[in-house]
């Protein structure tokens, strides 16, 4: 008998199959039992009739508890009322392991702290199943986008001696006789080196920020997708980000639509997203916020409230461009028409989800980069290899970083980013 996954059962109508998985729910009525069965690809109802399976099999099924592992053999029957479109009429039930105690997650009113403490088991819940499938679709979309455009994937290091942003947000690690190194907060500097070799490059991997933040938008460990392209200037960079985010949304709508609906996402809001995305400069944004009653002046950074109000005006994500030079990182290219601002952008997701991309054209002039390092009190000698890129065939180039979990949280409509990653690392959580 062929072992089949639930997601493929529609191809086996009226055929005998074997399923391997777990009990999610169970109810019985006399000589008939209904098992909600899951196998990691979906959920299906297994009907166990005493007259069909016999007394011994029925007794085995009766002893099953929530999250018992088992093998089911039976016939696939079409059932339009079922979410999966089919059900299984069991002919044999083979328990693999029956728990000796109650499954810890059964009540509908568990606190979020309790659920996070049992995250290793909470992942088995239907909602978490669908969220992780949406995450999987987002990551597939990212890779597919770059592969279709002939980008080369470059895996950037997690241990780094160079700082991409500010040292205050880094985790220090003792690295043998070398001294202090850091857990990476960005692979950007290494991607800049790679783009000078391969032209168009990207990465996808974990990054770390030692920020004591407890907001619904922050994680300590999170995944980033970054890209760098040689000869790309600011406008090229903005278009690439726009294409990527639009591609991700369309891919998820096409491949994970049922998962979005299953968790209650209003998909009509995603369907309204259109290119080109709206834009405003930082200066225009400040003036708008001041008119809305915000106590903000030119040069101040935007917080979550400000980002929400800005993005709330639009159905599609919003580009805010040309931030003040002193408010941004040392490597950002000043605008030749106004050196007090830099050629950069933040992409703000609608519906209050805030920044999902930070981007800029990079400084390609050696002397200007040294000047900016000194202005930011960064050790020039630590950036010797980064400065080398400006000595040998330097060209204008641009790139960005997309926060994967923030993007998932927005697309899935999650209230908190902690559900967008399998095992969240937040200010007070490293367990499990």
Automatic annotation (TrEMBL):
Residues 132-422 form the Aminoacyl-transfer RNA synthetases class-II family profile domain. GO terms for cellular component: cytoplasm. InterPro entries: Aa-tRNA-synt_II, aa-tRNA-synth_II, aa-tRNA-synth_II/BPL/LPL, Asn-tRNA-ligase, Asp/Asn-tRNA-synth_IIb, NA-bd_OB-fold, NA-bd_OB_tRNA. It comes from the Bacteria. CDD domains: AsxRS_core (cd00776). GO terms for molecular function: asparagine-tRNA ligase activity; ATP binding; nucleic acid binding. PROSITE patterns: AA_TRNA_LIGASE_II. It catalyses: tRNA(Asn) + L-asparagine + ATP = L-asparaginyl-tRNA(Asn) + AMP + diphosphate + H(+). Its EC number is 6.1.1.22. GO terms for biological process: asparaginyl-tRNA aminoacylation. It is found in: Cytoplasm. Pfam families: tRNA-synt_2, tRNA_anti-codon. The keyword RNA-binding does not apply. Keywords: Aminoacyl-tRNA synthetase, ATP-binding, Cytoplasm, Ligase, Nucleotide-binding, Protein biosynthesis. PANTHER family: ASPARAGINE--TRNA LIGASE, MITOCHONDRIAL-RELATED, ASPARTYL/LYSYL-TRNA SYNTHETASE. Belongs to the class-II aminoacyl-tRNA synthetase family. NCBIfam families: asnS, PRK03932.1. Homodimer. This is Asparagine--tRNA ligase.
């Amino acid at each position: 008998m062929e072992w089949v996954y639930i997601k493929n059962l529609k191809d086996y109508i009226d055929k005998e199959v074997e399923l391997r998985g777990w009990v999610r729910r169970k109810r019985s009525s006399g000589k008939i039992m209904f098992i909600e069965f899951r196998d990691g690809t979906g959920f299906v109802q297994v009907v166990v009739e005493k007259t069909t399976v016999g007394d011994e099999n029925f007794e085995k099924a009766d002893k099953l508890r929530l999250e018992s592992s088992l093998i089911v053999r039976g016939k696939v029957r079409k059932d339009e009322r079922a979410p999966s479109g089919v059900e299984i009429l069991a002919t044999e039930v083979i328990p693999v392991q029956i728990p000796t105690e109650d499954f810890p997650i059964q009540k509908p009113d568990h606190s979020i702290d309790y659920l996070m403490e049992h995250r290793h088991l909470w992942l088995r819940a239907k909602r978490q199943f669908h969220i992780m499938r949406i995450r999987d679709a987002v990551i597939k979309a990212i890779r597919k986008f770059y592969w279709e455009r002939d980008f080369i994937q470059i895996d950037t290091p997690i241990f780094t001696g160079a700082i991409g942003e500010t040292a205050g947000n880094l985790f220090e690690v003792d690295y043998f006789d070398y001294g202090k190194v850091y857990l990476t907060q960005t692979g950007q500097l290494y991607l800049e080196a790679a783009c000078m070799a391969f032209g168009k490059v990207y990465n996808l991997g974990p990054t770390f920020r030692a920020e004591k933040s407890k907001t619904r938008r922050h994680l300590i460990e999170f995944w980033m997708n970054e890209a760098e392209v040689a000869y790309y200037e600011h406008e090229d960079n903005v278009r690439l980000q726009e294409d990527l985010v639009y591609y991700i949304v369309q891919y998820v709508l096409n491949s994970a639509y049922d998962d979005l609906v299953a968790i209650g996402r209003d998909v009509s809001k995603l369907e309204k997203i259109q290119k080109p995305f709206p834009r405003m400069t930082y200066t225009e944004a400040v003036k708008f916020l001041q008119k809305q009653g915000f106590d903000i002046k030119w040069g101040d950074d935007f917080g979550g409230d400000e980002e929400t109000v800005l993005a709330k005006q639009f159905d599609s994500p919003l580009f805010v461009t040309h931030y003040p030079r002193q408010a941004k990182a040392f490597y950002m290219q000043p605008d030749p028409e106004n050196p007090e601002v830099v050629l950069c952008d933040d992409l703000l997701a609608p519906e209050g989800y805030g920044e999902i991309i930070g981007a800029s054209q990079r400084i390609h002039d050696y002397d200007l980069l040294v000047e900016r390092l000194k202005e930011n009190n960064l050790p020039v000698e630590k950036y010797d290899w980064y400065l080398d890129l400006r000595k040998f065939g330097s060209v204008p180039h641009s790139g960005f970083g997309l926060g994967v979990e923030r993007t998932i949280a927005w697309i899935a409509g999650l209230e908190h980013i902690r559900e967008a990653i399998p095992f969240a690392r937040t200010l007070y959580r490293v367990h499990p």
